């Protein structure tokens, strides 16, 4: 079954089932970031998407990210699903790390994202490759981690649908985020939990309304 079709509870059970956690992808991340990650920290990494959102689409996306199966041209070309392994923006090889953080264009996006965050919440962010891909683990700010997750999803969405690459900007992302927040509010409403929505998302929601 495609991951996008899984329900949140299915994805969650995949996460907490240690047998399904791929040691290969963990090893690859540790090599990529040149760090060792304890089992406890891996648990924090795997559970973060479930703490910061109730949207199964985002949880499934992060699951694919952590297992390194988010599409990228290096992988697609390897399986003959793309004619090129290059990034459409800068022509370097498009790995997951490149697509989400290392590309000059995307680094600029994250700089703008950090500026926006500072402007609206007065907190300086120091985003690097691992805090973008895994989330900011030393922060209990779930709204921040939600926004980072949405931003990664947005970058992947724009790149995968080959929309005009100029669309990758914080300005365009904020329009996307506003729509996603409206959907999230509806999800809470449908569960009769609007108060919980306001508690958690109120400060962010106010920026758009
Ligand atoms: Zn690039």
**Cα shape:** globular
Relative strand content: under 5%
Largest sheet: none
Arithmetic mean of pLDDT: 88
The termini sit apart by: 38 Å
- Helix content estimate: 55-70%
Structural class: mainly alpha
Spans of 5+ residues with little confidence (pLDDT < 50)? Answer: none
Radius of gyration: 17 Å
Question: What's the domain count?
Answer: 1
Topology pattern, helix = H, strand = E: HHHHHHHHHHH
Please give the number of β-strands. Answer: 0
Please, how many helices?
A: 11
Say which molecules are bound, naming each kind only once: zinc ion
Domain Reverse transcriptase zinc-binding: 29-110
Protein name: Reverse transcriptase zinc-binding domain-containing protein
Pfam family, one: zf-RVT
Organism: Mytilus coruscus
Short description:
It holds the Pfam family zf-RVT. The protein is mostly helical and 209 residues long.
Question: How would you explain this protein's 3D organization?
Answer:
The structure is a single chain. The protein is mainly α and 209 residues long. The chain has one domain (3-208). Helix content is 65%, strand content 0%. It has 11 helices and no strands. The chain has helices spanning 8-16, 23-33, 39-52, 56-66, 73-78, 96-102, 104-121, 129-133, 142-160, 170-190, 194-208. α6 (96-102) packs across α7 and α10 (170-190) packs antiparallel against α11. The longest helix has 21 residues, at 170-190. The chain starts with 7 loop residues before the first helix and ends with a helix. The model has no long low-confidence stretch (mean pLDDT 88). Bound molecules: zinc ion. Zinc ion binds at residues 87, 89-90, 92, 98, 103. This is Reverse transcriptase zinc-binding domain-containing protein. Pfam families: zf-RVT. Residues 29-110 form the Reverse transcriptase zinc-binding domain. InterPro entries: RVT-Znf. It comes from Mytilus coruscus (Sea mussel).
């Amino acid at each position: 079954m495609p991951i996008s079709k899984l329900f949140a509870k299915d994805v969650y059970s995949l996460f907490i089932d240690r047998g399904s956690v791929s040691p290969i992808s963990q090893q690859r991340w540790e090599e990529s970031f040149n760090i060792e990650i304890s089992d406890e920290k891996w648990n924090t990494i795997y559970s973060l998407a479930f703490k910061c959102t109730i949207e199964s689409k985002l949880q499934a996306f992060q699951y694919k990210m952590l297992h390194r199966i988010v599409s990228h041209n290096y992988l697609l070309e390897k399986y003959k699903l793309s004619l090129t392994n290059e990034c459409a923006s800068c022509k370097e090889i498009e790995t997951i790390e490149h697509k989400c953080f290392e590309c000059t264009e995307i680094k600029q996006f994250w700089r703008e994202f950090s500026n926006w965050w500072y402007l609206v919440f007065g907190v300086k962010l120091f985003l690097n490759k691992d805090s973008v891909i895994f989330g900011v683990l030393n922060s209990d700010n779930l709204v921040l981690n939600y926004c980072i997750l949405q931003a990664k999803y947005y970058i992947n969405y724009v790149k995968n649908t080959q929309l005009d690459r100029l669309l990758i900007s914080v300005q365009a992302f904020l329009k996307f985020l506003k729509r996603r927040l409206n959907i999230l509010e509806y999800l809470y409403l449908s569960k009769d939990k609007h108060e919980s929505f306001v508690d958690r998302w109120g400060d962010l929601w106010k920026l758009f309304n």
